[in-house]
Amino acid sequence: MKVTVFGSGYVGLVTGACLAEVGNDVVCMDIDPGKIDLLNGGGVPIHEPGLDVLIKRNRAAGRLRFTTDLDLAVAHGLFQFVAVGTPPDEDGSADLQYVLAVARGIAERITDYRIVVNKSTVPVGTADTVRGAIQAVLAGRQAAVEFDVVSNPEFLKEGAAIEDFMKPDRIVVGTDNPRTTELLRALYAPFNRNHDRLVCMDIRSAELTKYAANAMLATKISFMNELANLAECLGADIEKVRVGIGSDPRIGYHFIYPGCGYGGSCFPKDVKALERTARDVGYAAQLLRAVEDVNERQKLKLYEKVEGYFKGDLGGKTFALWGLAFKPNTDDMREASSRVLMEALWAAGAGVRAFDPVAMAEAGRLYGERADLVLCESPEAALRGADALIIVTEWNMFRSPDFDLIKASLSHPVIFDGRNLYDPVRVKALGLDYYAIGRGD
Ligand code: UGA
C-alpha cells in the first residue's frame, strides 16, 4: 500500500521505516532540508536502536524514500500519516500549528480520496479541527474531494520503539467511517500477531486514549515516588514495598519503579496538556496537577540529599554524574532529571564531571562549553577528582561498577543513587555511604 508520513522525527521515522519493512511503499516528508539530506545520505538524525538498519534495508529495497517535496508527498500515499511535533505552548496546551500546516498542505493538493491519519499526540477534538481546516481549503479551491480523518495514536517507548511498532500490544484506531477502519485494518494486518490487535473506537475516545495511557503511567510513577518519600520519613524500604504491592496482579510489577522523577518528551508534556484540556472544559483535574507537582519535586530529590550531606556547602565541590539521558537507550535529554540536578548544582557553585554512554553530544549541544561541566569519556574518568558520585540514569553499564575504584577516586566516599541500582547493605559494607530513593536513609 502507498503511505506518506509527514514529519521525520522520532515517531515519523519509526512509523515510516516499520511500514516499509512489511512491504509498503513509503514516502517520508519533512520541511527540514538538512534532515532529509542527512537521511538521503544514509544518516539517521536520532538515536533509536535498530532504526538505522531498518532505514538502510528499506531504502536499498526502494520501499522508503525521503523528500521535502510536498506535491510528491500528497500525490503518493492513500494514507497520509501526520507525525509532526506538538510542542507545549507556554500555558501547557499542545501547539497545533505544525499539524494544521500539514492538513492545509494536503488540502491544497489532493485530487482524489485520502485518509489523513493523525499519529501526533493532539488534544481531544483535533481531528475535528483538522477536518474543518481541510474542508475550508477545499471549499476555497471549489474542489469536492473525499477524505477521512483518523486518530491512530502511537504508544512507542523511546529505546524500544521498533519493537513496540512491530509487536504492538494494541493498535488504537478512531474513525467515523467503517470503510476507513477496514483500510487501516488491512494496513496493520502484518502487525497482528496471534490475534487482532486493532482496538476500534470513535475519534474522540482514541484521542483521549493516548493521554489516558501516558497520564496513568505518570501517575503510577508519581505515586511510587510519593510513597518512597514517605518510606524515607518512616524508616521503611520502598524497594520491599514495591515487590510487596507488585505481586498483586491488579497492581503489577510494571512501571512502579521509584526514582528521581520522570522526564522525556511525553509524560511531562502530556500530563500538562491533559490538565490544561480539563481546565478548558471547566473541570479541575486535581490528580493530574498532583502527579505533575510530585514529579517536579522529585527531580530535586537528589540535589536535596547532596545538599543535606554536605550541609549546604557545595561551592567549589565537584560531582561525578553518571547518566544524562532521561532514561537508558536514548540520547534524549528533554525534561531529563539530570538537567534539573546539574542546574541546581551549578547555581550552588558546584561543578559536574558527567558521563553518559550516548547523550554526551546532546549535553554538549544543550550546554556548550562551560567551566563547571566536564564531559568525560568513561564512568571512571568522571570519578577522577570528584567529591561524590550521583547516578541519574539506570544504564546497564552502571549496574555492577568497581566499588573499590569509586571509593578510591572520590574525596568523600558517597554515592547518591537516583535509580536504586544497588543493595544498600552491600555498598555500605564496602565502606561507602549510600543514599538512594525511599530506602530509609
Ligand atoms: C512514554 C510511554 O511509555 C509510551 O508508551 C508512549 O508512547 C510515549 O511516552 C509517547 O507518548 O510517545 P517514553 O517517554 O519513551 O514513553 O519513556 P518511558 O519508558 O515511558 O519512561 C518515561 C520516564 O519515566 C523516564 O524518565 C523513566 O525513567 C521514568 N520511569 C519509568 C520511572 O521513573 N519509573 C518507572 O517505573 C518507569
Automatic annotation (TrEMBL):
InterPro entries: 6-PGluconate_DH-like_C_sf, NAD(P)-bd_dom_sf, UDP-Glc/GDP-Man, UDP-Glc/GDP-Man_DH_C, UDP-Glc/GDP-Man_DH_C_sf, UDP-Glc/GDP-Man_DH_dimer, UDP-Glc/GDP-Man_DH_N, UDPglc_DH_bac. Residues 320-424 form the UDP-glucose/GDP-mannose dehydrogenase C-terminal domain. The active site is at residue 266. PROSITE patterns: PROKAR_LIPOPROTEIN (PS51257). Gene3D superfamilies: Cytochrome c1, transmembrane anchor, C-terminal, NAD(P)-binding Rossmann-like Domain. Its EC number is 1.1.1.22. Signal peptide: none annotated. Pathway: Nucleotide-sugar biosynthesis; UDP-alpha-D-glucuronate biosynthesis; UDP-alpha-D-glucuronate from UDP-alpha-D-glucose: step 1/1. Substrate binds at residues 155-158, 210, 255-259, 263, 327. It is an enzyme of class 1 (oxidoreductase). NAD(+) binds at residues 30, 35, 86, 121, 158, 269, 334. It catalyses: UDP-alpha-D-glucose + 2 NAD(+) + H2O = UDP-alpha-D-glucuronate + 2 NADH + 3 H(+). Keywords: NAD, Oxidoreductase. GO terms for molecular function: NAD binding; UDP-glucose 6-dehydrogenase activity. GO terms for biological process: polysaccharide biosynthetic process; UDP-glucuronate biosynthetic process. It comes from the Bacteria. Belongs to the UDP-glucose/GDP-mannose dehydrogenase family. This is UDP-glucose 6-dehydrogenase. It comes from Methylomagnum ishizawai.
